[in-house]
Design brief:
alpha/beta; Rossmann fold; 2 domains; 7-stranded parallel β-sheet; 22 helices; 13 strands; globular; disordered N terminus; disordered C terminus
Length: 538
């Protein structure tokens, strides 16, 4: 498929989706949700801006582009450091020192910037007052960087400091330059903060439209987890040994953390509504600077009718098959799952485990998982199945297990319940609320599985065995999951919520209004009640 060109002559979409490292190049998780949203709202048109790291990391699209997506644009962060089509011999202008100083102070200065500083930075980026030459080659930026190093930096070398700032600053200017070439849309919708969130701030300034933010996980929190484990950050032995993110963090890690925190705050100040999947993440957004009156909770929804056949294919009894469904990457902590299976097989020799998900995102981690299976003597008990149709897989499982160290509201739990499969999950994100129930009425349905501590293979194994070896308990968990997903997590309500938000944004009206006010709402669409701030309902 030919890549669409980025021109202002492209059709004006209703919604411009800003996506970082997800759809259409990565399967599962947020990408599945984006695909679900686009297909579920065929009356709206979408444009998509995909932001990736290295172009080579995204060789193939994993999803077909639906007919209601009228434009796709791709931007790659790494290309900002080596921009194409620029001659090193061209005369350099005098770079705008005030704008470069504003960029440094907002992103790198230890003192927290005020709201006006963020507005000034967005105005500068949107107005084209900075270009890549200013950041990469100007004497003015060199002077600001060196002054910042001597004033604020103590432990890393100047080279580490210099290249870190280039790595942070250049993508922002690249995104701003790209923003001025993108075809307009009526509403902006970013599915994270980070680079996509910042691009939303710039486009809102350029287009003068409403800006919606949805966070499945909390981007800033997830980047902190990544940074705590990042081996590419240069630190001396003393700093590296001194602790994690919150204790003894080296200056380079601090720069990266500060950067993601501040562009996250910039996004929170620009977007409305600010959507999360459950109450815990909403509270985290507020803690990180989101205005509580702008926040709203919209859980994931699932196509209940589309999963009816999966339940019908489930055989009688409890299959001694334990399933892991997800990407084979560190954040999913597949190693805990594998170690748990060692305990399951020891107590229940007929049991086996299926690992269902792509292994190409982190091949070295996937290789480590294969090696762990071999070292534990599980070669004949653990099967790596790669990508599969999970509507065919889930009905064959006795238990579905999620061992992630970070999640928001995993769609795979809802899918497991639709297929009649109880769930064992680590205590992350909304998983406890999902499995045990959030409200009093929800809890009355009973647990739909078990929740265990993060990275605890012994507890995970016990929870799996408790379900597989106790038919009464297993059947109660199955019934609870089916009842819960049908009562609270149908996709019709989710679609109605987003239609409400999108139409209100396009009409530039208050977003907390009833979806039934809009002609495009289906008679079958649930009417939404006006929502009060969460603090008034808790």
């Amino acid at each position: 498929m030919n890549q669409p060109t980025a021109t202002n002559d492209a059709p004006m979409a209703d919604i411009c989706l800003l996506l970082e490292g997800t759809w259409p190049y990565v399967r599962g998780g947020v990408s599945s949700w984006v695909n679900q949203l686009i297909l579920g709202l065929p009356e709206l048109t979408f444009s998509v801006v995909f932001i990736g790291g290295k172009r080579e990391a995204y060789p193939h699209r994993r999803y077909d582009i639906p007919a209601n997506v009228v434009h796709v644009e791709e931007l790659y962060i790494e290309e900002s450091w080596q921009p194409h089509g620029r001659s090193s011999k061209r005369p350099k202008r005098n770079a705008p020192r005030d704008q470069l100083l504003s960029l440094y102070r907002f992103l790198h200065h230890p003192d927290a910037p005020g709201e006006s500083a963020g507005e000034a930075l967005v105005a500068s980026l949107a107005g084209g007052k900075l270009d890549l030459d200013d950041v990469l080659h100007s004497r003015e930026n060199w002077d600001i960087v060196t002054d910042g190093y001597y004033t604020h930096c103590s432990d890393p070398s100047f080279i580490d400091f210099f290249w870190t700032l280039r790595s942070i600053q250049a993508p922002l200017v690249m995104l701003a330059q790209a923003a001025r070439q993108l075809p307009k849309a009526r509403v902006l919708h970013s599915i994270s903060t980070g680079y996509a969130g910042l691009l939303g701030c710039i486009l809102k300034r350029l287009w003068g439209c409403e800006y919606v933010l949805s966070e499945h996980g909390i981007y800033t929190k997830e980047r902190k987890i990544d940074l705590a484990q990042a081996s590419w950050i240069g630190e001396d032995a003393r700093t590296a040994a001194s602790g994690g993110i919150d204790s003894g963090t080296g200056y380079i890690r601090s720069l990266w953390i500060r950067y993601f925190e501040r562009i996250g705050l910039l996004t929170y100040r620009s977007a409305s509504p600010i959507i999360s999947l459950y109450a815990g993440n909403r509270q985290r957004q507020i803690k990180d600077g989101a205005d509580p009156t702008r926040t709203r909770i919209i859980p994931n929804g699932i196509d209940l009718e589309g999963w009816s056949d999966a339940l019908a294919t489930r055989g009688a009894g409890i299959a001694p098959v334990v399933g892991f469904i997800g990407r084979v990457v560190p954040i999913k902590d597949l190693k805990t799952f594998i170690r748990a299976i060692r305990g399951v097989v020891s107590a229940m020799p007929e049991a086996e485990a299926w690992i269902v998900g792509p292994e190409d995102e982190d091949p070295s981690y996937a290789a480590e998982c294969h090696s762990l299976v071999a070292s534990l003597g599980l070669e004949n008990k653990v099967r790596f199945l790669g990508f599969q149709n999970i509507q065919e897989i889930l009905p064959q499982l006795g238990v579905m297990v999620l061992t992630s160290i970070s999640e928001a509201q995993p769609l795979v739990i809802l899918e497991a319940w639709c297929a009649g499969t109880p769930v064992v999950s680590s205590d992350v994100g909304s998983c406890r609320e999902l499995i045990e129930g959030g409200t009093r009425d929800d809890q009355a349905l009973g647990p739909a599985g078990e929740v265990v501590a993060i990275a605890d293979p012994q507890a995970t194994a016990r929870a799996i065995l408790d379900l597989l070896m106790d038919p009464i308990r297993w059947q109660a968990a199955q019934a609870s999951g089916l009842a819960r997903v049908k009562r609270y997590y149908g996709e019709a309500l989710m679609f109605a919520c987003y239609l409400e938000i999108y139409y209100a944004a396009m009409e530039n009206t208050e977003w907390l209004v009833s979806a039934s006010n809009y002609e495009k709402s289906s008679p079958e669409t649930p009417t939404l009640q006006r929502l009060e701030p969460m603090s008034m309902r808790d």
